[in-house]
Amino acid sequence: MTETPGRRERKKAATRRTIADAALRLFFERGYDAVGIRDVAAEADVAVTTLFSHFASKEALVFDQDESFEQRLVAAATAREPGEGLVAALRRETHALVRHCTAGEAAGLWRMIDATEALRRYEVAMRQRHAEALAEALATAAPDRGEAARRALARFVVDAFGVARTAEDPAAAVDEVFDMIDAAWAAAGSS
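Below the sequence we write its predicted C-alpha cells.
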C-alpha cells in the first residue's frame, strides 16, 4: 500500500510542478536561451531562491522528469515480472520511455533540447548518471555477471534511448539495438 504524502510534501511537489510548467511555457514561447532564471521565478510567482531549492540549474528545469526516468530504468532491472528476463525488461521500459519522449509536447521538448547546446551537454551528463545508477542496480539484478559486463549493459541500454528517440522509426530502432544488446549479453554470459 502506498502512503499518501503529507501536506508539506504535497505543497513542495505542487511548487516544483508550478515552476517546471512556467519554465517550459516560457522556453516554448521565447526560446530557451532568451529566458533567464528570474523570468521563470517571476512567471511561477516564486523567489529565485525558491526556484533553486527545487532545481539546481536552468537546464534542470527542462529535465524535470530526469529522476523519474532513472527510477524507471532501475525498477525495470530490479523489480521485473516473474520469469521476465533482464534484457527483455529493459527493452520493455526503453520502448515505454521512447514512446513517451516522441509523442505530444515531449516531442517538442526534445526538439528544443536537440537545438540547444547547453541542453545537449546536460543530457549527455544525465545519461551518464542514468547509466551509473543502472549499473549499480545490475549488481543486484545480475550478480553472476562481472562489473564490466554490467556497466556495458547499462551504458548500451541508456544509449539505446538516445539512438531510438531520434530515429525515423523509434520502435524499430529500440528493437534493432536491443537485438544486439541481447546477443552480446547472452554471449558474455557463456564465456
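The chain has a mean pLDDT of 92.
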